[in-house]
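HOLO CASE FILE
Compound: zinc ion
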Amino acid sequence: MLKKLLFTFVLLIYSLGVMAESQLTTTFPTESYVIGKTNNGCISGAQALPLQGDGYVVVHLERRRHYGHPLLIQTLQTLAKQAQQQQISVLQIGDLGQARGGALPFGHRSHQSGLDADIWFNLKANSYTNANKQRSNIKQFSMLNPKGKGLNTRWTNQHRTLLELAAKIVEVDRIFVNPSIKHDLCETVIGNREWLRKIRPWYHHDKHFHIRLRCPESSPDCIKQTPIPAGEGCDASLAWWFKKHKASGSIKKKSRQPKACQVLLAD
Ligand SMILES: [Zn+2]
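Model generated. Tokens follow.
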């Protein structure tokens, strides 16, 4: 009896393992389309970002979060090439999403529908060359000044250029950065400032920035985000971040997963 129980238990654990594994590593083989929202959704027909390419490397390979909509893959590759042309060092690409999207076990609420990607602010040449095989031991540095306000000396013009390049890619809907980074851009960017609109202040995001694409036209079940307000965003909405206030990230109510995602993620 005990043996049988044990066997059932092992089988259960094994099948759970296989299930989790398949969700993590096999895409759902269809045309690519996004379902739901970035913080409650999934993706069918995701594409894997090659683990390295012109001007970039993917980091933390053990997380297997290098999947996304083909437009996201293209965007990252384009950005890396453009950065290379500007003599910006090899980009370190962090999390995109899982092979079929869905909620991540740790680290983010979004990154669920194949439209989000994190790019680290580590731009020092060769800062990844001593990394281990999974590139999981690269140190990430904050751009914030630990004493008082503002940014530290790691922050350079290259970071500003990189954000400008990213914001000017049409498919990019918005980019999340730390409020101090947005503030720096508001203070320093001259000439065409239209792209500042896409740069959105948000909690953390001082070691990496986060790009999010708009819903692809070929994904009718992709739920659009509230449009970003008009203007550069260098106004009271930015000043708010530097006043004392309670963190507003408390809307923890879990919405039900879209039906199509339940199917996709259960396979
Ligand atoms: Zn992110």
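CASE NOTES: Residues 2-25 form the longest helix (24 residues). Residues 108, 111, 116, 118, 210 surround zinc ion (CB under 6 Å).
CLOSED: yes
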